[in-house]
Amino acid sequence: MEILQDKELVRKKYIKLTDDAKNNFKNREYEEAEKQSSEACKLIKSNDDAIIIYGRAVLSRICKEFKSHELNVLVIGDIMLDRAFRGLPATDLAVGRHNTVTNNIYMLKNKESETNTLGGVGYLGYAFLPMVENVIMIGTIGSDCEGHILKEICDGKRGYDGTILKNENDINKKIKFLPVIGDKTITTTKIYFFDESITEKGDKAIRFDREDIKIMREEQNLLKDKIIKAFDSIIEEHKLQDNSGINKSTISCIVIDDYEKGTITEDIIEYISTTAVENNIKVYVDPKYEWDKFKKCDIEAIIPNRKECKEGLKTELPVQASLDEYPQISEFVIKMDSDGAYFFDKGKSRHHVKPYGENDDASDVGCGTIFDAYFITSMLCNNSLPESVFLANYAAGLMTMKQLGQIVTPEDIIKNVTHEVDYFIKNKYLIESLLIK
Question: Could you please report the per-residue DSSP string of 17-28?
């Protein structure tokens, strides 16, 4: 009888905690809701109600707190222009068809169906904008119209959708862009055509790449000096020194986004790493396939996708031996596309965060970049590694519902988690074992 009474007391306490947590979440008191749902989870294990409210509260709390941190992020890497066109196959009557034209001819839907947006490291800088105080960016462009468009977007003369603004004040936040211009360099441009007759949203594209990596690499020595000069000017501008004489900086972190187009070389990485150590700045890296250039560098976290990890470490899912090859990298996080993400704790144990959603056919364009921005910002705000990956994985999932050139904002996450259930249930074990304090 006494045991039954104890169980009833526990049940009543659990119900009160979850009800209070739901009310606090509704009133945007996320931290209090997180604490109450955490206590409820400890009372009755694997109970979905408490798990769901805890998941909603922790993601909302992190997004809300971004605004209280004045972060300055410096991003360096290969910048690109993403050009998107949307339309439908033309009828034979609508166009004159020459004998040499054997494939379909497409026609744009309207003027608004053509957009120019930031790509590569430019898109990463844009993804950071809603979360941090300032974004500073260094990237290589050519003296061509595509490079000019990129600069106009960053300078606020165009919107981030590439449209020309009537008033410069129409754009709220600008990226401070230090363009490195190569005399022969062609501005890397990704051209997407979305055939809206294939799917309702037109989310599958034909892509054309406008670039010449050979020319970029021929100019690397000249470009390297220009990149280092731009980098040094930013470091000097943001340098501080405390009473002990230790160098500090108002730069919160440096993010290296390497697409192996020619901007990021081993010399530049070593120079950035050395300077960052001297000024107590954390370095994050989204690599491509050549990882040897990172072995001598102090890196807070490396954030590859599945293919980059397989090429860089010669294994899809790293083991102790492969991680030990990079002793100066503190954290390993692997973006696994539709399989979610993996991260490794200090003991090198692997943890899996299951994906948001179930649509394997969803477009993954931009998802990795959104993941990077949310993961890094969360870490800079002193959230734990599991919390930061959990948030970034959810943000990347929301990106599958966006179009090319759009981003996921903290407000998007706070709005969506209000109704989210599946993501938290799928990650129940992770929440109970790693997130609940």
Answer: HHHHHHHHHHTT
Q: From CA 271, how far away is CA 278, in angstroms rounded? A: 11
Q: Is the same domain home to 391 and 259?
A: yes
Judge if pTM exceeds 0.85.
yes
Which helix or strand (DSSP H or E) is residue 193 part of? strand 189-195
Q: How many domains does the chain have?
A: 2
Spatial contact of 188 and 261, defined as CB atoms under 8 Å apart: yes
Whether 291 contacts 266, CB under 8 Å? no
Q: DSSP 3-state assignment of 46?
A: coil
- Burial class from Cβ neighbours inside 10 Å (0-12, 13-18, 19+) for residue 404 reads buried
Encoding tokens for residue 147? Answer: 């490079």
Query: DSSP secondary-structure letter at 432?
Result: I
Same domain, 343 and 313: yes
What is the rounded distance in angstroms from the CA atom of residue 70 to the CA atom of residue 431? Answer: 29
As averages over each run of 10 residues, the pLDDT of the chain (437 residues) reads 64 89 93 92 85 96 92 95 84 56 69 84 95 94 92 86 62 84 89 74 73 80 89 92 74 93 89 93 94 88 92 82 84 92 84 83 81 97 96 95 89 96 94 89
List the beta strands (DSSP E) in 55-126. Answer: 72-77, 79-89, 106-108, 114-120
My answer on whether 296 and 310 are in the same domain is yes
Residue with tokens 């000249």: 222
The CATH number linked to 274 is 3.40.1190.20
